[in-house]
Design goal:
With 615 residues, the protein is α/β, with parallel strands linked by helices. It is built from 16 helices and 18 strands. Helix content is 32%, strand content 19%. The strands form 3 sheets. A 9-stranded antiparallel β-sheet has the order 10-18-17-16-15-14-13-12-11. Strands 1-3-2-4-5-8-9 form a 7-stranded mixed β-sheet, sandwiched between helices.
């Protein structure tokens, strides 16, 4: 492909894709998938597996084209090693200089045939990527494809559909946001967060906290003057020293957009911290905030900024030089209402990791040298002849439902927005870590592809029945602070034994959640002890050794988790300080978090029969 389509003497770049023909040998059409970021390769191993799982039975009758946008994956991924190696918070003036140096590198990498540099920092935007895909579809002789884009991929899909409607049979925008009229402040994130954390708790049978967000507000006030610092269990059994500031809390909240584990834990961790127990918060921060390690190796940080600094609206003029932009940004911040991001102050919120929102990261990006090339030049966003399914989760803080509604209104009657309750960022791509959450999105996607013209009649009942994230009510410090399991018929146990049953099940559930984040197979308990896990197909086995969910009791034993069926089965012993040894057998289902766990066992010769909200 020509790097610079405005010059006939432009150097070329390679673009790549992976092609999966319909398994039946008799294809009824082709699905084109575009990954988000920007910067994630569609052809990457993880993405490929998820796209194939999303299609499911559609793979029999549909070809699948996984296409890498220019600058990602097989399409000449942009490599800026300084960004990859950057050790600190990805925001602020020093980081902006590193980003700017990446842009200057792009300006000096390619040359025209006369030897002059291309200055390519503004040539990796969405419009050029759309032109590339159109060329590829023509060369492959593919017509009327079904285009799926998630996150930035959905932003790209809007641009492609606006420019090349004749190439499309249908469009699916999953976790989308506005190309036209995008708010450079991204205030919908904080407005959604204020209700989303409360919703997650209210839906979970395990969570009894009435107002989660008010506790988070209290924590923000505390951290502003007294950051939390201490040693906490890091991932893979490594103890780490962690400091949680108000800026750290901003990052954790934003990370909840794609991480149900934060919805599960933050409210309880905040409550513990404001009550004097920082350990759960420190551990959550170590789990969620890991500079330089949270992005996969095949992610192109350079492409992320090449798009963000070219296409996304900024709080300053990109046509101005870097020396003027800083003053423009300061004036914009000064004019923003002080309570816009409450409980956070405006500068606190804008210090968020730039890979979430690049508020100040583009300050030193090179001034564009080519004519303006916006993703969409004129309405319509999508031709009314092309059916458009728009999906969004109501717990998605990165691309909140508000954006999907706006895009549907911009497109008109040929589009339908469906909000799925209890789901975070990207609804239709199955996630083996949280398999219950994306079942509805994948179902709606497949039914739509079967018959796009029947979009108005699509059965969306599943959008209201996603199993809730099992949200923690508290992190008890001692056994006596733990909520007791609920006695069932035939129970003879004491309140202490019922509390022991609760912490035993909680220790197993915690290990299951933590295993999603590990690169090894060993970790430590919240308050001591160790556990290991081995992964099978489809069953994962956990072994707990003196794990401390509370400070004065330990949990030992084994558990299995069948990821296909969701069944958890655990046989455990709890050894409370000064209390009777409790032996329990607990079962629950991670795909059905509304049905309580059942617990049977014995303590001091007395029978334990109880139930418990899924931990």
């Amino acid at each position: 492909m020509p790097l610079d389509r405005t010059r006939p003497d432009s150097p070329t770049i390679n673009v790549g894709f992976t092609w999966f023909p319909a398994r039946s040998g008799n294809p009824q059409g082709t699905i084109v998938a575009i990954e988000g970021g920007p910067g994630y390769p569609t052809t990457g191993d993880s993405s490929r597996t998820q796209y194939q799982a999303m299609l499911g039975p559609l793979q029999e009758s549909r070809n699948l084209l996984l296409y890498d946008l220019r600058g990602t994956g097989r399409s000449q991924a942009l490599n800026c090693p300084e960004l990859t190696a950057y050790p600190g918070q990805a925001s602020g003036p020093v980081f902006a200089q590193v980003v700017g140096a990446c842009g200057e590198k792009l300006n000096d990498t390619w040359k025209y045939s006369d030897g002059t540099p291309v200055r390519a920092a503004d040539l990796f935007g969405t419009a050029n990527a759309a032109r590339d895909l159109d060329t590829v579809l023509h060369r492959l002789d593919l017509a009327e494809v079904d285009l799926y884009g998630d996150s930035y991929g959905s932003w790209f899909a809007q641009a492609f559909a606006s420019r090349y409607p004749a190439a499309l049979r249908s469009v699916v925008l999953d976790a989308t946001y506005e190309v036209v009229g995008l708010d450079p402040w991204y205030t919908s994130t904080i407005t959604t967060a204020r209700s989303a954390f409360d919703l997650a708790c209210q839906r979970s049978p395990a969570c009894t906290r009435p107002h989660t967000w008010s506790v988070i507000e209290e924590l923000a006030d505390r951290l502003r003057t007294a950051p939390a610092t201490g040693t906490a269990p890091g991932l893979n059994g490594r103890a780490v020293t962690v400091t949680v500031t108000v800026t750290t809390l901003v990052d954790i909240i934003n990370n909840a957009a794609s991480d149900p584990g934060i919805y599960q834990a933050l409210g309880a961790a905040a409550q513990a911290a404001v009550s004097g127990d920082d350990q759960p918060l420190l551990r959550l921060a170590a789990q969620s905030i890991t500079p330089g390690e949270s992005l996969p190796e095949d992610y192109s940080r350079g492409l992320y900024f090449a798009v963000a600094c070219t296409d996304y609206p900024q709080l300053f003029s990109t046509a101005s030089g870097p020396e003027q932009r800083q003053g423009q940004l300061a004036r914009s911040i000064g004019q923003e209402p002080s309570g816009a991001f409450a409980p956070f102050r405006v500068p606190e919120w804008l210090a968020v990791d730039a890979y979430t929102n690049a508020y100040d990261a583009c300050l030193d990006w090179p001034v564009p040298t080519h004519p303006a090339d916006p993703p969409i030049t004129a309405p319509p966003v999508v031709s009314p002849a092309v059916p458009v399914l728009i999906l969004g989760g109501d717990l998605d803080l990165l691309t909140p439902p508000q954006g999907g509604r706006h895009v549907a209104a911009q497109i008109g009657p040929s589009a339908r927005f469906i909000e799925i309750a209890g789901v975070t960022h990207v609804t239709a791509m199955p996630d083996t870590r949280w398999p219950a959450l994306n079942a509805c999105g994948a179902f709606l996607y497949r039914r739509f592809i079967d018959d796009p013209k029947a979009l108005a009649q699509l059965d969306i009942s599943c959008s209201r029945t996603t199993p809730p994230i099992p949200t923690l009510s508290s992190y008890p410090f001692t056994l006596n602070e733990a909520s007791p399991a609920l006695p069932a018929p035939g129970d003879q146990s004491s309140p202490t034994t019922l509390r022991a049953a609760h912490i035993a099940a909680s220790a197993v559930a915690d290990a299951i959640t933590r295993s999603h984040y590990l690169t090894g197979q060993t970790d430590t308990g919240l308050r001591g002890g160790t556990w290991t896990y081995t992964t099978g197909t489809p069953t994962t086995t956990f072994t707990l050794n003196s794990v401390g969910w509370v400070s004065d009791a330990t949990v030992n034993g084994a558990a299995t988790w069948n990821q296909d069926t969701g069944t958890v089965s655990a046989t455990l012993t709890v050894n409370p300080a000064g209390g009777p040894l409790t032996t329990i057998h607990a079962t629950w289902n991670t795909l059905d978090t509304r049905t309580p766990a059942t617990i049977h066992g014995n303590a001091g010769g007395k029978t334990l029969n109880a139930t418990l909200p899924v931990p």
